[in-house]
């Protein structure tokens, strides 16, 4: 696999924290939007931040980038304070630009040359552009690129300083499923080249596929932090069983079963999350009560199920 970071890879110490956030708080107009967030990201990880709209995700990562000043708390990137060691952090952290930050008339080549000029030791942008599939688009203006090409250019610009960490905030929002999958492969290659990735996303499938660990932020606080599989097991159990019963099951009947969670859908479908013991208990209850079922489905739980369970009160 090619080195997507353009050969900028340095030795990594997998398992060492490269980002440390502790007791982070930020208020706007007296309202806490980040309310005591702590986490650390190991070098070489893809670390995801998930959460509902307005949960405080962007505020948190912008404090990591040194773009916002926390009211309280402690942030370190490779041991540096992003506010006090601004130049040092800029050299080692690549941030994805917001769309509006690029002039529509700027060509891909001009953008790459311009951003390379910001760094003392930039990556060689030509192989980077090739690797990101932009080699034949160098003279194309930003406004004429497809959504997927624009996202690839943002990844290239985030990598051009040869960073050890990249922060990608909702990178695949607005992409079609094909473009999203291509971007996922690129993010995996970025990580495989040794760069640590801090990824803010709304897409559970994206987090499940890419992230080594995920923090779910809700109401400015960390609701859960684990591997995607750990979150799934903790929040939902491992299995989702759904069916339309010939007569409704009562809340009391359901409460007596060893389930993690259940939900009634509009079409009378009952969705039950649990484990093998839950599945057996449901089958036994149905047999005892002579309830038949239609459209029975048994599937593995996903991060989507876990997320809905973890953020259920607010959503
Ligand atoms: N500069 C600001 N001034 C006042 N309020 C702000 C400011 N920036 C963010 N907020 C508010 O802080 C809260 C958290 O915003 P933030 O952008 O961090 O959330 P988010 O989790 O990234 O949301 P989304 O998923 O919608 O991007 C929101 O209610 C937002 O309106």
Automatic annotation (TrEMBL):
The keyword Transport is assigned to this record: yes
Domain ABC transporter: from-to ranges: 19-244
GO biological process: response to antibiotic
Cross-referenced InterPro entries: AAA+_ATPase, ABC_transporter-like_ATP-bd, ABC_transporter-like_CS, ABC_transporter_ATP-binding, P-loop_NTPase
Keywords: Antibiotic resistance, ATP-binding, Cell membrane, Membrane, Nucleotide-binding, Translocase, Transport
Documented EC number(s): 7.6.2.2
Source organism of this protein record: Streptomyces xiamenensis
A Pfam family this chain is assigned to: ABC_tran
Family: Belongs to the ABC transporter superfamily. Drug exporter-1 (DrugE1) (TC 3.A.1.105) family.
Record's protein name: ABC-type xenobiotic transporter
GO cellular component: plasma membrane
Lineage top rank: taxon: Bacteria
């Amino acid at each position: 696999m090619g080195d997507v970071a353009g050969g900028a890879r340095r030795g990594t110490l997998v398992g060492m924290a490269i980002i440390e956030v502790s007791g982070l708080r930020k208020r706007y107009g007296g309202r806490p939007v980040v309310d005591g967030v702590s986490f650390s990201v190991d070098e070489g990880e893809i670390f995801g931040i998930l959460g509902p709209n307005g949960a405080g995700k962007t505020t948190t990562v912008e404090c990591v980038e040194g773009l916002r000043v926390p009211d309280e708390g402690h942030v370190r990137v490779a041991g540096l304070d992003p506010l006090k060691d601004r130049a040092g952090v800029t050299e080692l952290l690549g941030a994805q630009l917001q769309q509006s930050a690029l002039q529509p008339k700027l060509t891909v080549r001009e953008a790459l040359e311009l951003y390379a000029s910001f760094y003392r030791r930039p990556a060689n942008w030509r192989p980077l552009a090739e690797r990101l599939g932009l080699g034949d688009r160098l003279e194309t203006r930003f406004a004429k690129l497809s959504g997927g090409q624009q996202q690839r250019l943002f990844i290239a610009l985030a990598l051009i300083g040869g960073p050890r960490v990249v922060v990608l905030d909702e990178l695949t929002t607005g992409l079609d499923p094909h473009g999203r999958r291509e971007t996922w492969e690129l993010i995996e290659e970025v990580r495989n080249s040794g760069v640590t990735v801090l990824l803010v996303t709304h897409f559970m499938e994206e987090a499940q596929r890419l992230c080594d660990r995920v923090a779910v932020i809700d109401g400015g606080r960390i609701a859960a932090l684990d591997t995607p599989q750990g979150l799934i097991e903790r929040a939902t159990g491992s299995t989702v069983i759904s069916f339309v019963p010939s007569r409704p099951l009562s809340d009391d009947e359901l409460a007596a079963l060893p389930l993690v969670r259940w939900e009634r859908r509009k079409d009378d479908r009952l969705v039950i999350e649990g484990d093998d013991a839950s599945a057996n208990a449901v089958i036994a209850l149905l047999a005892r009560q002579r309830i038949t079922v239609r459209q029975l489905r048994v599937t593995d739980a996903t991060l989507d199920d876990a997320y809905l369970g973890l953020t259920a009160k607010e959503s």
